[in-house]
Amino acid sequence: MKESQREAKPLLNKNSPSPFKERGIKGGEVTINFTKMQGAGNDFILVEAGKVNRDWSRMAMAMCNRHFGVGGDGLLVLSPSDKADLRMREFNPDGSEAEACGNGLRCVAKYAAQNGLVSAGTHQILVETTAGIRQAKLYRAGGKVTRIQVSMGKPRFGVKDIPVLIEPSRGEAVDITPILDYPLTIDGKELLLDFVSMGNPHAVCFWQHSVADFPLSRLGPEVERHSMFPNRTNFEVAKVISRQRIEARVWERGVGETLACGSGACAVTVAAQLHGYIGNRVNIKLPGGILSVEWDGTGEVLLSGQAEVVFTGEWSGEV
Fold first, then answer.
1. Predicted confidence (pLDDT) per residue in 57-76, tens digit
2. Separation CA 219–CA 151 (nearest Å)
3. Does some domain include residue 94?
4. Does residue 199 share a domain with residue 106?
5. Rounded to an integer, what distance in angstroms lies between the CA atom of residue 194 and that of residue 246?
6. What is the pLDDT of residues 278-309, one digit of tens each?
7. Which of 64, 205, 261, 266 is catalytic?
8. Which residue in the list 101, 107, 205, 266 is annotated as catalytic?
C-alpha cells in the first residue's frame, strides 16, 4: 500500500456523527438488523455494531448455524474506526476470529457504499482489519457498484509469520524464504504443501488430477488441525489449467469447505507464481464462482470480484 494511502484521512472520525446503528438491549435479548451477502458463494452475515461490544463469538455460532440460525460462512461485524473509514471483524461459525477475509472485505466495501457508511460516490474505502489496513476500490456502471478490488497485503513466508512448526534442520534456513513442496503425510497420502500467510495461515497443495476428486472432506480437517500448525490453517487444493486459469477448492479454518475463499485464492496465486506456473494475473475458479487475483511478485496481492446482497432481516436472541 502506498504511503499516501496509509495517511488518507478516514471519512469517519471521532468528531463526526456515526452512521452506525446501535441497537437497544432489553434484558438478556437483543434484536439486530442484519444483511446477508455473498461473494462467489462465500456467504456472510453483516451487522453494524456501533460502539456496543457483545459476545460476537457466541453470536457467530448461533447466527451462522445453517439449520437453527441465519446461516453463513462467517459473521462480519462493522464498527467505526479512528484509523480508517470503518473497522471489520470476521467471526467463523465455530466462534473463532479470522485475521483476514478477502470475500468478506469486498462485501463490506459494497455494503458501506450502499448504506451511507462512507461518502456518496466514493471510489476508495480504507478498512481496518485484524491483519492491518486494507484498501477497497469500487468500480461502478450505471450508478451501481459492479466490481470491487481489495488489497490483501503482502504475502509472508516466515515460519513464525504463518505460523508453522517444521523440523529444525529446515527451519534454520527458512525464516523468510518461501517453503514449497513440504511433504506431509495424512491418512497414508503424501501431500506437498506450500506455506503462505495472507495475514492468516494457508497451506496450498497443487494436484495433478481434478480437484473435484480430491478427498477434501476427509483430509481437510486433518490438515487444518495438524500439530505443525499451532493456530490451525486454511487448506487449498489446486490444479493449474493454464497460465491464466487455476481450479481450486478450499477447506477454511473454523468453517469447513466453502464455495470460495478470497485469502485462499490469493495464497494459491502466490504459490503458483513462486512455482513459475503462472504470470502476474490469474483467474481462480472455485465452486462458487471465479475470483481474479494479481501479484507482481513483491507488493500487495490484489483480489477482484463481485459482491451481492442476498437478503436482509432481523435477528432476535440472547446476547
1. 999 999 999 999 999 999 99
2. 30
3. yes
4. no
5. 16
6. 999 999 999 999 999 999 999 999 999 999 99
7. 261
8. 101
Residue 139, beta-bridge partner list: 147
Please give the residue range of the domain that contains residue 42. Answer: 3-152+306-318
Q: What is the pTM of this model?
A: 0.88
Q: Within a 10 A sphere around the Cβ of 138, how many other Cβ atoms? A: 21
Query: Is 261 a residue of the active site?
Result: yes
Whether the CB-CB separation of 224 and 235 falls below 8 Å is answered with yes
Strands (E), 155-222: 179-186, 189-197, 201-206
Mean pLDDT calculated for residue range 201-208: 97
Nearest partner of 263 among 129, 103, 110, judged by Cα: 103
Residue 2 has pLDDT above 60, yes or no: no
Rounded CA-CA distance 60/90 in Å is 9
Least confident of 127-136, 164-173, 175-184, 185-194: 164-173
188 and 212 in a single domain? The answer is yes
Residue 158 lies in a domain: no
202 and 253 co-located in one domain? yes
**Both 100 and 31 in a single domain?**
yes
Cα–Cα distances in Å, from 84 out to 9, 40, 100? 7, 26, 16
One domain for residues 140 and 250: no
For residue 307, report the phi and psi dihedrals to the nearest 5 degrees: -145, 135
In whole angstroms, give the CA distance from residue 25 to residue 201. Answer: 36
Q: For cell 460476537, name the residue.
A: 56
- CATH label of the domain that carries residue 237: 3.10.310.10
- Burial call 220-259: b when 16+ CB within 10 Å, e when fewer: bbebbebebbeebbbbbbbbbeeeeebbbbbbbbbbbbbb
Give me the torsion for CA of 172, 174, 175, 181, rounded to 10°.
-140
107 annotated active-site:
no
